[in-house]
Amino acid sequence: MIRSVLLSTMVLQMKQSFARPMFRFSLIANPILNTILLYEMFRHSQQDNFVSYVVLGAGLMAIWSCICFSSAGDIQRERYSGTLALIYAAPAGFPAIITGKILGNTLLSLSSLLISLATAVAVYHTPVVVIRPGYFFLAPVALVGSFMVISTVLAALLTLSRRTSLYMNCIEIPFILLCGFAFPIQVLPAWLHPISLALSPTWAVDLLRMAVNGVEDASLFFQKLLILMLLSVGYALFSGWLYRYMDRQVRMTANLEVC
Amino acid sequence: MEAIIQVENLRRDYITHRGFLHRNKEVVSAVRDISFYVQPGEVFGLLGQNGAGKTTTIKMLTTLLAPTGGTCKVLGFNTFGEEKYIRPRINFIFGGEMGVYRRLSARDNLRYFANLYGLKPREREQRIQDILELVELRDAADRLAETYSKGMVQRLQIARGLINNPDILFMDEPTVGLDPLGAHMLRDIIRTLHREGKTVLLTTHYLPEAEELCNRMVILNQGRIVAQGTPADIKGEAATLEEAYISLVQEVKP
What we know:
The complex is a heterodimer. Chain A is mainly α. Chain A has one domain (2-253). Chain A has 11 helices and no strands.
């Protein structure tokens, strides 16, 4: 049953998301505009790997926007269309349904990376070099996992409140800065580093960059992958607890629907 | 026969906080110590004015809301804490145009909800076909729900509510906004469910409908039960159920 719930929710989510103009803008136009913006910033930065900061940065920013405006916005849309109560009370279980939604959004948003890459090649004719393709194919898997676990935690938190739109707007840019999507987290003030390191996408982005720039120290790559996996397990355990808490709280505070 | 729904001294308060520096707690009692039971196979009505506590009661019965106090059991299980035993065997329909995915077709909506209720693919397709015929949406089954009229959306809601062949169907003002033909169809569906031995609990403002369909009913006013029994019991000496209802509701002052 879980497999069919995950699959059908994932397909439903992809259909619903793609039907929305705002999602299509975030998915298609956003990575193109981000690529142009970052390229213009990158030109005078003396950085020598174009893929690392322009293509990945633009793609990651677009993925995160899609996740924010879809995964987070979906809770609110479901609430306002009266379907949140229906999926919440379905025997399949709310966590399985939310996981299917997040899976659908995350996989669909990955195309932003390709759009960003295509824009970079088409507009600037800059050669795209991936030094270690083996690592480069492993890193996106880690990226999907990291986005999924953090989205699961966010979805549970956003179900608890009716101020979803406010929160999703508040988290978009800070996450882009804290996770080092567009520039290294080392440029942030030192007191922000612990927060950055506690966010799972930070590690996934680091792995992606290492794969693009060339993995000189394989043990360091796998060490970071292990940290990411441990963090993801921590997030998964936390979201499990959070869903149990949310399940009681949302019915006590009557936040499932619009009053 | 053991009751399929048992409600004893059920209470639900809504708490709101106002103010920024000096937080004031405001408690509104939507349901105040109500008790009733429903037997298997009954069509049971919850009647009352807006704000009487009908929807709050139905939400507690459908596991969507936690009671503040009292007992709320469906199929012998507590609706808060034992909901996993209840949810596969019930379904609910809330009136109006909400509760469907408007960017999906009726068939896709029903397929999705069938999956959430764990129907196997073959059983699912047959069930969808049967229900679409029952609500007369077969010819429009593959059109997006956003192209439907209000009545068609409500019929799709009814179809969704029947997808898991529930033992108990909860309906919150299901005929609101339906045209006469749609309302007639819904009443026919309720009668069919009754003949099949299903239990239906419905709320309505439309008293002739309640009188026609319900075996028993309770009348709520300001969160309290002011009368319960068969439509004939409640009507008593009054000429119509509506007359009896108005005098019962007006007796209770705020």
